[in-house]
Write a structure and sequence with these properties.
alpha+beta; four-stranded antiparallel β-sheet; globular; Single_hybrid_motif; Acetyl-CoA carboxylase biotin carboxyl carrier protein subunit; Biotin_lipoyl
Length: about 140
């Protein structure tokens, strides 16, 4: 077992170092910690001011655009997504890990095909932040 003071110390070190998540497994325990404001989808934690950001595979596996038990259509270029929306799944063995959007935005590039094997860190999607999308639409409207 791990003491609560040890957990607090680990959490402080995570915040100071910028580490977004950690998993510690012991003989009789398993501990997962996530820091607020960090990206857990496998993409780099990028500021919203950038024109685009990527969503990367957090683990090695097979990409699926939808869960095999659901009949959800695949996401397409131009689709609007909200923070936390499921973008697809990575299958490792029998485990299906959801891929979540780290922030609101629009899918600009789909970098992976349904059923494709991907390695950890592979770019799966490129998204444009929602604030950028709104500003772009406002600029277009101002021209007309």
């Amino acid at each position: 077992m791990i003491a609560i003071n040890d957990i607090r110390q680990i959490a402080r070190q995570m915040q100071n170092s910028g580490l977004g998540k950690i998993e510690i497994n012991g003989k009789d325990f398993s501990l997962r910690l996530r820091c607020e404001g960090k990206d857990f989808s496998g993409s780099e934690n990028q500021p919203r001011s950038q024109t685009s950001f990527t969503v990367k595979a957090a683990v090695k596996g097979q990409f699926w655009a939808s869960h095999p038990m659901q009949e959800k259509s695949a996401l397409a270029r131009g689709a609007q997504v909200k923070a936390g929306d499921c973008l697809g799944f990575l299958q490792t063995g029998d485990l299906m890990t959801p891929i979540r959007s780290p922030q609101d935005g629009e899918i600009r590039v789909l970098n992976v095909a349904n059923g494709e094997q991907v390695g950890r860190g592979r770019v799966l999607f490129t998204l444009q932040p929602a604030a950028q999308t709104v500003r772009h639409e406002e600029a277009e409207h101002a021209l007309y």
